[in-house]
């Protein structure tokens, strides 16, 4: 019986070590990048162009004027969407696809002054780390800058990370109680690794499960379908109605709805998608993309997709993403996520050091 238990423990140690080593360096990257991305909006605001004046809403340029300025500067561009001004983002950003930038295969962000409608700056996305470091960091976190291959790798490593966590829980289950009660540890050869592992356990389980859930699509058959997609730029048509007037009608019908992002139709006959949030929404939901209002080609409200109207599965996906990225609870939650994220990075380092020591001194458990 003792021999069987020892063999089982040895097998768990092997699984724990192998999965930890496989995921280790990548978990280090994900943990550090995740700790930084918690402050995405704050850091990105440092790279936003300065808008000197912040007058009342009545003095702002209307959206049709801003849209027309983009079309004048980029007459053949496909205008994807616009991000409206906020405390962290004082300008109006238009995201476009134009042949003058990366042959139209990557989006270009163009900043406009919300008052004068003048173009004040522009930058690329993840391929422009100097001017858009947070987009580059997000791409590193989401796919290791490897595109579709990186997305699959992230799903695989997420599985290894969870297996490593679960086997660690079994191996060091006595240490969990000891650390929480500040008692002497039963395994003294890897004290730092155990302490960090215990205090970050719930956080790592939350991050691991939520992250793997978001990557579940890489385990589906459709993900492996070969694609050679090349984006074809379609010149955006002029707007057929006054968007500000449509917004006023929308505000009367849904007074607690605040718009944040506008997706423009590629053709004048298409629908305009307005993403935002309502004040009545629970704190856990996103402030940018939770609620949706669709406007038809005449500027009238066509349909809505508020968070209370969507399927329960979609709501769970929204909450899952919010929990994973720490986009709730304000600064206190962000600070906690950042500290625990850096501790997880340290956990991968102590795990590697422990593995090296165990190779030299096999008696260390």
Q: Would you kindly provide a brief summary of this structure?
A:
The chain is of the alpha+beta class. It contains 11 helices and 8 strands.
What can you see in these coordinates?
The protein is an alpha+beta fold and 365 residues long. The chain has two domains: 2-39 and 142-229 and 336-360; 45-134 and 231-305, no CATH class. It is built from eleven helices and eight strands. It has helices at residues 2-37, 40-45, 63-73, 133-143, 148-171, 173-180, 191-199, 201-214, 243-253, 312-325, 330-360; strands at 78-83, 92-97, 108-112, 119-123, 257-263, 272-278, 291-295, 301-305. It has an eight-stranded antiparallel β-sheet, with helices on one face. The model has no long low-confidence stretch (mean pLDDT 89).
**Number of self-contained structural domains:** 2
Q: What class, by secondary structure content?
A: alpha+beta
Q: From the alpha-carbon coordinates, what is the Rg to the nearest angstrom? A: 25 Å
Q: N- to C-terminal separation?
A: 20 Å
Give the CA-based shape: elongated
For the biggest sheet, the summary is: 8 strands, antiparallel
Give the topology string: H per helix, E per strand: HHHEEEEHHHHHHEEEEHH
List how many beta strands DSSP finds: 8
Strand order of the largest sheet: 4-3-2-1-5-6-7-8
Overall pLDDT confidence: 89
Percent of residues in helices: 40-55%
Give me the number of helical elements. Answer: 11
- The amount of beta strand, in percent, is 5-15%
Uncertain regions: pLDDT < 50 for 5+ in a row? none
